[in-house]
Design a protein that fits this description.
Shape: globular
Distance between the termini: 56 Å
Strand order of the largest sheet: 5-4-1-2-3-6
Low-confidence stretches: none
Number of strands: 6
Largest sheet: 6 strands, mixed
Number of domains: 3
Strand content: 5-15%
Mean pLDDT: 95
CATH class of the largest domain: Mainly Alpha
Radius of gyration: 24 Å
CATH topology of the largest domain: DNA Cyclobutane Dipyrimidine Photolyase, subunit A, domain 3
Structural class: alpha/beta
Length: 487
């Protein structure tokens, strides 16, 4: 370490991979020594959106990266705010370049990036950021987005050419830990998917080689989707995989596969992933307020008892409660269940999406801000351009968990009831109660609301709001800014 030694820094963010990493590929071609870093920023990790499950996944991913890095190097993974870290590092080296991948994050990371950009400018450091998964910074409309996205997906992947690397070595990085606080190893949990590229590739292989056959049939089923869906979402969210590499793998497989329909459906969802993040990139205020500004005046009084019942999985609607408990315990539920629980909260309980947005983000292992808030807006009916879908949890249980397997697994107090009563426990009679040793209202809560009444009320208020002239102007603005032309 010498203050006159010139180095570059690669800052890992939500791109925890070596392969097909545009920013890293550029960094390793530099003439300077390269220091790879990951920063656990206390101000961000204390934010209400993040949980130990996310930290554990990242920690496992960094361990995996360290195993894959050659030339006797490793990632300097420390606990520090960004600017203090680089101030200290600047006392030890002359930093010429910092490379990272663009992050479409929460307001807190957006503000951090603005402050850090100012720091780099003031200190004569060049900070180069690179596009992530076809999401384009600075767009004002989506007129060419579809074409540009496909062009990006069809570009050659960026292999990690280790022979060109010039990383700072193990010993020096170990010495640097004297100056910084190292990451602490998290507690182990077996019910969550494990982080790291090796795990990501294992899930990808099993999906493309076996589970793709069940994709279309299982995608809406709360229990079977755990097997039939790709389960790649956390590896996209934290960057163990790029969308491009998986897309290209699917394209190649489609040439020889018998499951072309399933692969087409899967590939369309890869594009949706980037599409929703692009919306958030262009309009990040939707973390806090309605997409269609006409809904800003909609009154939704906070009801803490409703919110507590919902977050505790105690609404009295078995499929809602099972889905909530499942995501708390495992970090995953399928798309339909995600949509249903948000619809139940925002329509039947008529609570604003922001009352639970951070809490729900903490539960999703695959928390991706753009998808999270884009979907919450859509399911709440706040876009003003989509049909308002008010999910009936009982009908969904009958359609997608007809044997009540998922319900009984995650709401064990209903496991002793026959299927029909597990789905609709309010139909338990006095004779049933005695026969099955089940006391409705005691062993399992009564329904928190009558969904026939709440559905009618929610639709009346939401569609009433949509009829205003302002709502129509907002609708047009959203269509012009965020809608992708068909041709």
């Amino acid at each position: 370490m010498h203050p006159n030694e010139i180095i570059d820094v690669f800052w890992f963010k939500r791109d925890l991979r070596l392969v097909d990493n545009d920013a890293l590929n550029e960094a390793i071609t530099s003439k300077n020594k390269l220091l790879p870093v990951y920063l656990y920023e206390p101000s961000i990790w204390q934010d209400a959106h993040y949980d130990e499950r996310h930290y554990r996944f990242i920690f496992e991913s960094i361990q995996d990266l360290d195993n894959d890095l050659l030339y006797e190097t490793k990632i300097l993974a420390v606990q520090s705010e960004v600017i203090p870290f680089f101030k200290t590092l600047s006392d030890l080296y002359q930093i010429e370049n910092i490379f990272s991948t663009e992050e479409t994050g929460l307001d807190i990371t957006y503000r951090r990036d603005i402050e850090f950009q100012d720091f780099c400018f003031t200190n004569g450091i060049r900070w180069s950021q690179f596009q992530n998964n076809g999401v384009v910074r600075g767009l004002t409309d989506r007129s060419s987005w579809r074409k540009d996205w496909y062009n990006y997906m069809n570009l050659p992947q960026k292999d990690f050419e280790t022979k060109h690397t010039n990383f700072i070595g193990h010993k020096t990085i170990s010495d640097l830990y004297v100056r910084f606080d190292a990451l602490q190893e998290p507690s182990k949990r077996s019910k969550f998917q494990k982080g790291g590229r090796k795990e990501a590739l294992r899930w990808q292989s099993s999906f493309f080689e076996e589970r793709i056959a069940f994709y279309s049939d299982y995608i809406s089923k709360p229990e079977l989707s755990r097997y039939g869906c790709s389960r790649l979402s956390p590896y996209f969210a934290w960057g163990n995989l790029s969308i491009r590499e998986v897309y290209q793998k699917a394209v190649e497989l489609k040439k020889i596969s018998s499951y072309k329909k399933q692969l087409n459906a899967f590939m369309s969802r890869l594009r949706w992933q980037s599409h929703f993040i692009q919306k958030f990139e262009m309009e990040p205020r939707i973390e806090f307020e309605a997409f269609n500004k006409a809904f800003l005046s909609l009154e939704q009084p906070i009801n803490d008892s409703y919110i507590n019942a919902w977050t505790e999985g105690g609404t009295g609607y078995p499929l809602v409660d099972a889905a909530i408990r499942c995501v708390v315990q495992t970090g995953y539920i399928n798309f339909r269940m995600r949509a249903m629980i948000v619809s139940f909260l925002t329509h039947h309980l008529f609570q604003h999406f922001t009352t639970v947005g951070p809490w729900l983000a903490r539960q999703f292992l695959d928390f991706e801000p753009g998808i999270h808030y884009g979907q919450m807006q859509m399911q709440a009916g706040f876009t003003g351009i989509n049909t308002v879908r008010v999910y009936n949890p009982t009908k969904n249980a009958m359609d997608h968990d007809s044997d009540a397997i998922f319900i009984k697994k995650y709401v064990p107090e209903l496991s002793g009831l026959p299927t029909g009563l597990a789905i609709e426990p309010w139909k338990v009679t006095a004779m049933d109660s005695e026969m099955y040793g089940f006391n409705y209202g005691v062993d399992y809560p009564e329904r928190i609301v009558n969904i026939s009444d709440t559905r009618r009320m929610a639709l009346q208020k939401l569609y009433g709001q949509r009829k205003s002239e302002f709502a129509q102007l907002e609708r047009q603005r959203i269509l012009e800014t965020h809608t992708i032309p068909r041709n």
